[in-house]
Amino acid sequence: MMTEPAPKTEIPDGLWHRQFDAANDFPTVPVTKKVALCTTPRCGSHFLGHQMHALGVFGYPLEYLNPGNWHVWENRAGTDDTLDYIKSVRTGPNGVFSVKLHHEHLLAFLKQEPAPLDYKFIHLCRRDLTKQAISFARAQQTGAWISDMPETAPAEYDWALIAEKVDAISRGNADWQSFLRSVGIKPLQLFYEDIVADMSGTITQIASYLEIDINDVTAEEPAFTPKRQKKKAQDDWLTRFESDSRAALAEGRPIPGASPPAAAAVIRRRTIQVAKRLKAKAGL
Question: Which residue from 239, 43, 46, 222 is spatially nearest to 129, judged by alpha carbons?
Fold first, then answer.
């Protein structure tokens, strides 16, 4: 593990870039426990991650494998292996390293992490899929992905965009389940709605699952605390989306969960079927 001090990297101005600041680094210690938050956009993972970080015993779960973030970390790491470098500065004092992964980051994680199954996995979802999709669509339109980011563009109701996000979130959650079940992992399952209702109880659940003693732990006052970004307009969007979806269904138009499979999925399924027939024909 590296012992050299963090290089003086020029961090661009902007709220998004503070996550890379060396002021958020921990002193280097050996990694004794690794944790992966399995997430989808707008499921509450940013909020939960900051609460975990404030306690100082869960590492600092951020989207290190996000391609945009990874580039900055490569610059900070210099000639060192990037993920090893991240671990050297973002592993907590008790040896816990944690990372947040949307499913689209999984392949990069598997490529960079030589021992992915050594991690303890936490799967975070929202029970209200449509509200999550609306939040996702709104953040994409406005550019305000966290609570203190200014909105750079107006948000406008867009049924097709929300429908796209419903499908994307559904696929992300299903793909996480497929991956975890395929390798025999039963993750800790958490829900956004429960976290908001009982953060203390959530932290206790996480600590118990990870076998981390938090009896004498006091949360530090964080430099930044995310806040809920719910807007009243989102309630109106929910009603409109449900109404428009019913109308589309009545007219025979596709809606989330009742759409023709994407061309790539059809091709993949046919390829698998052909492969099975060929193997059967060959007696394999």
Answer: 43
- The pLDDT value given to residue 98: 98
DSSP for residue 118: G
DSSP per-residue string spanning 207-239: HHHHT---TT------S--------HHHHHHHH
CATH code of domain 15-253: 3.40.50.300
Determine phi and psi for 139, rounding to 5 degrees.
-65, -40
Q: Any idea where the domains of the chain sit in the sequence?
A: 15-253
Q: What pTM, to 2 d.p., does this model score? A: 0.82
The DSSP secondary structure of 22-75, one letter per residue, reads GGGPPPP----EEEEEEE-TTSSHHHHHHHHHHHTSS---B-TTSHHHHHHHHH
Measure the CA–CA gap between 200 and 209, rounded to whole angstroms. 14
